[in-house]
Recover the amino acids of this structure.
């Protein structure tokens, strides 16, 4: 039996076919873009907590969304 909490966290299915794959690709790219934007705004102390240097964070943030 699926609970409400499990249903809410279940991945959403996209339409099948080429359009669905393109939409999924763009969605993942946008998510990566937002995560990299957040990463670029962390302080040096926060980066140190997660084991990254400013240089590594800057290099990651500069990547295009499809990588």
């Amino acid at each position: 039996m699926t609970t409400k909490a499990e249903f809410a966290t279940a991945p959403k299915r996209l339409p099948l076919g080429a359009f669905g794959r393109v939409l999924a690709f763009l969605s993942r790219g946008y998510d990566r873009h937002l995560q990299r934007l957040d990463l670029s705004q962390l302080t040096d102390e926060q980066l140190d907590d997660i084991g990254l240097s400013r240089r590594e964070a800057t290099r990651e943030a500069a990547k295009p969304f499809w990588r």
Q: What stands out?
A: The longest helix spans residues 18-40. The chain has four helices and no strands. The helical segments are 4-9, 18-40, 44-49, 54-61.
